Amino acid sequence: MLVDLPGGWNPLLGRLAWSQIPYDNPILAPLFVAVVLGGIAIVALITYYGKWGYLWKEWLTTVDHKKLGVMYIIIGLVMLFRGFVDGMMIRTQQAWAVGPDSSGVFGALHGYLTPFHYGQVYTAHGLIMILLAATPLLVGFMNIIVPIQIGARDMAYPYLNALGLWITAAGAALIMASLFIGNFAHNGWFGYAPIFEIQYSPGVGVDYWMWTLQLLALGTTLGGINLLVTIIKMRAPGMTWFRLPIFVWASLSANIIALTSFPALQVALGLVAADRYLGAHFFTAGLGGNLMLYTNLFWIWGHPEVYFVILPAFGMMSEIFPVFSEKPLFGYITMVLASFAIAGVSWLVWLHHFFTMGAGPDVNSFFSVATMLVGIPTGVKVFNWAFTMYRGRLTFTAAMLWALGALFLLLIGGLTGMMLAIPAINYMVHNSVFVIAHFHSMLLVIVYAVFGSVIFWFPKVFGFKLDEFWAKTMFWLFTGGTVLVFVPMYMLGFMGMTRRLDYVFNTNWHPYLLVMEGGIVVYTLSVFAFFVLLYVSIRDRVKNRVGADAWGTSRSLEWLTHSPVPFYNFAVTPHVNARDEAAWRRANGIAAVQPAKYVDIHMPNNTPVALYIGALTFVLGFALTWRIWWLCLASLVAIIVLMIVRSYRGDPGYIVTAAELERMEREAIARERQVDGSAGEPVVGGAPAVGRPAMAYERSDLPKTSTPPSMGPGAHH
Amino acid sequence: MSQAHHGHQGGHGHADPILHPEVQMSSGRGYFSGFLISTLLMLIATFLVSSHAAPPFGLLLVITVCAGISIIAQIYFLLHIDISEHNIWNTVSLVAFIPLFVLTIGLTWWMFSQLYLRTMPPMPGMH
Amino acid sequence: MSGHASNNPDPKTAVLWDTEYHGHDVISTRSLGFFMYLLSDGMLFATLFAAYGVLSYQHSYFGGPTPADFVKPWYTFSQTIALFLSVLAYGMGMTALKRRSRGGLINGLLGAFVLGALFLVLDVHDVMDLAAHGITVATSGGTSAFIILTQVHAAHIFFGLLWILVMIYQVLRLGFTTDTVGRLLSLRMFWHFQAVIWVFVYIFVYLWGYMS
Questions:
Q1: A575 in contact with C at a CB cutoff of 8 Å?
Q2: Which residues 9-68 of B are in CB contact (within 8 Å) with C?
Q3: Exposed (0-12), middle (13-18) or buried (19+): which is C65, by Cβ within 10 Å?
Q4: What residue ranges of chain A are covered by domains with CATH 1.20.210.10?
Q5: Does B119 touch chain A (CB under 8 A)?
Q6: Angstroms from A450 CA to nearest CA on chain B
Q7: Which of C11, C32, C136 sits opposite A233 (nearest CB)?
Q8: How far is the first Cα of chain B from the last one, in angstroms, to the nearest whole number?
Q9: What angle do CA A511, A516, A517 make, to 5 degrees?
């Protein structure tokens, strides 16, 4: 039943052989040496400082949503860097390999990358940027912020949360392994049938691509379920639906998309696997297969996925604008409706990725109109942000600058998107770099929103602000890079340059490509500025310490708890009274009121099982890629056994006693008062209502519900 | 609403999980009805199809109706989808999902039938 | 944002911290999450059905055998009965749980296991039989879609059987704890959901395939 493989195979190692290690590649071999040396250096440093125990106890086995979120963001930033290097390689090749007179090195006729290697670079660039940079960055932020914003102590399933992280990490590790063992896919990040069939791509590249995507899809689905249930079931008392911070709404709509669309990706790739491993004919050119079926199945997931990444970015912008405009968000309800409209319409537009398939005028018109509909809710959002800023007290902090940059990019990307929604235009520019420039504008909206959020929420997570000067420097350099790379790219698209060229035949395009290369240099400077930013901020951390309300104008619930957020988030579950609870308490002078008494709280235990299962999914992906059947079976059985054992043992959790809680709270409050004198007199537990006799900190007639109250009559606005 | 009814089960593990409403809504009569309805409908569909009792299109309609009714019966009797308080979120999620199932299958079939009209030579028996 | 402030309580009397809040209901939180997983699993099947729809045209079989040639309606009907009975047995086990009858629950689980295993044996026998007649995933696009779709369902049954065994062991060893009862509820949804999916598979893949 298994297909006949071209090339060697043995039962012990599958397709692995020495010849698969690219030690003679002039780019990869030095990189491999550098990676090994870097790895040894890191291990040596951790050992020298004796940090293994800390790393294991505090990070690798943690189920704390904030630490898991930080690790997601670290994975996202590292992969963003890798994806950036891939992009730099693409730009350099295109700036170099122009015209028949251009030189070639390292075995390439023109430029420095052979076509096969270049194909792997752009495939990796796309896959990494979308699924290993944007997705983990956004999932990381949702993980950290959503539970705090709804006043929950953790996610609904802390262990599942850790599992999602480690499976994502396994996906990242698998794509990194493809650099040095074997090769990666050359079929573009979304893949084309039938080039990924075994006859045309006999190597392991496609298998790496496929299993990496499968792992990431699994990790994201688990994370999506977790966030949805957390938002539905774990809101604090008083947190009615229409008091939810807008970022929570954005996360809710985004994760509905994730939960519903990722199965389509898993099926699309599962069927590719059936073709490549079992010799099925889903997407083959002959024997009744259908090439376009793959494209269809992929984009059933692919288009909703685009909105899965953009909606949280919109949510982030909706948090940043009001804080630095000192006004509540304009049009809260329409913002919520717009998010859900975008999520809903995202399911009606996928064919616009392949208008040129030729399904005819009826089909193309339907999908064209549906695509244009997306412009309406998106326009609503843009106007809402504009009206939020209108007549506000604007503060142009670095976070605000990034959000504004995102807004401008959204305009450009959105308008070019409207152009692309028209089939007649789409036929003209299909597969040209105009399309590339369009979706880079859109994805850069996410990058801008993410960097804005890094600056915005960094003090909440770590307790000190990032350095404003370097954050702004980075912003301007990054924006310079964006303009220099993507304006010429739009122009080249109109001139007819197609995407993915490893050799540019038209020498008239050379000046534009050189400008884009200059843009990449500016981008590189912004990467350095980011490293300086981290260094300077950590160096000056004592100076930059903040209290609970780090910006002084913050609005939502997360700004009520301490910075950095303690592992239990809130010592006592807050009772929510207003839509912008932090702003409401500040406006009424009760922001510093602390709970009158503490009660024991129940927390989940750390567990290494999630880490083990994540590692085993890496082994499984690797074994499937190289067709090492015994190892596939062994790792699969090990995963199932681990799950059964973990399920049998369960997790009783542990109790943080009220006394211990009170001690930690006192310390945190004392620490914050040193930096945040303006926050007013804290009224600490045990001294109820001194000077404020009318204040009821707790009431015995509270409804003892175990689920958050549903939307009350007072929630309508 | 009493505390036992609303369920503090497992909040700290001191309540009896058997009293949880999701355990209590199991009903032997409901499961039996679900079984009977869907088995009967499958029997009818199988009989009609295996005896080619009607022209294909009519037959397709009839078995689609059989499938539809037995799905509804199973969703109601077996999956306990209704608008009671402890099931409401399951119901909401199901209602959110069903249009997406329809869109995924329906739009795919539509676009490919249009594509085949234009790209495949006509063959007898195409549906 | 007019009316925003008027709906908020008076800050002087408002409750700010809620020491009485006991957190979420663990069992229904677990089952909601599991139900969402099942719905995403439903989307997996929907996508497979979409693929099957595209690959069930005459030309998809490339002149080879079509389901009209190899589907045996009454044989597959026996699978249907086995699966529905298994689901019924599980349901009866759950009513025994309601009565706190551990023996009744174990009997229900065992019945569900045996009947589910019967379904799987019939299915595997069917696939082997097809393979003996030269009908595999590699025969044509149409048979690829037919076999993968039906066998993905069978794979769900396989993992469900494994899960039933695990639950029998857990109930015997741990009794009725919040965890085990919660898992029994999730497994109930999983097992009953397979019956729902099977109706689609049976009607639209087996019977419809046999007709056309």
A1: yes
A2: 9-13, 17-18, 20-24, 26-28, 30-32, 34-35, 38-39, 42-43, 45-46, 49-50, 52, 56, 59-60, 63-64, 66-67
A3: middle
A4: 1-239+608-649
A5: yes
A6: 29
A7: C32
A8: 55
A9: 95
**Residue C178 near residue B17 (C-beta atoms within 8 A):** yes
Of the CA atoms within 13 Å of residue A168, those in its CB half-sphere come to 33
Which CATH number characterizes residue C186's domain? 1.20.120.80
**pLDDT at residue B111 tops 50:** yes
- pLDDT band, residue C24 (cuts 50/70/90): confident
A503: left (phi over 0), alpha (psi -120 to 50) or beta: beta
- Nearest CB to A602: which of B6, B12, B117? B12
pTM score, two decimals? 0.92
ipTM of this model?
Answer: 0.94
Q: Going by C-beta distance under 8 Å and a sequence separation of 6 or more, which residues neighbour residue C70?
A: C130, C133, C135
3 state SS of B67 = helix
Give C199 to chain B, closest Cα distance, Å. 6
Fold of the domain spanning A1-239+608-649: Cytochrome C Oxidase; Chain A (1.20.210)
Distance of CA A464 to the CA centre of its chain: 23
Residues in chain B within 8 Å Cβ distance of A704: 3
Tally of domains in chain C: 1
Question: Any CB–CB contact under 8 A between C88 and chain B?
Answer: yes
Q: Tens digit of pLDDT for each residue in A545-594?
A: 998 889 989 999 999 999 899 999 999 999 999 999 999 999 998 888 88
Interface of C with A in 41-80 (CB under 8 A): 41, 43-44, 46-48, 50-51, 54-55, 59-62, 64
Query: So what's the pLDDT on residue B13?
Result: 44
Q: Which residues contact C211 (CB under 8 A, 6 or more apart)?
A: B49, B52, B56, B59, B60, C68
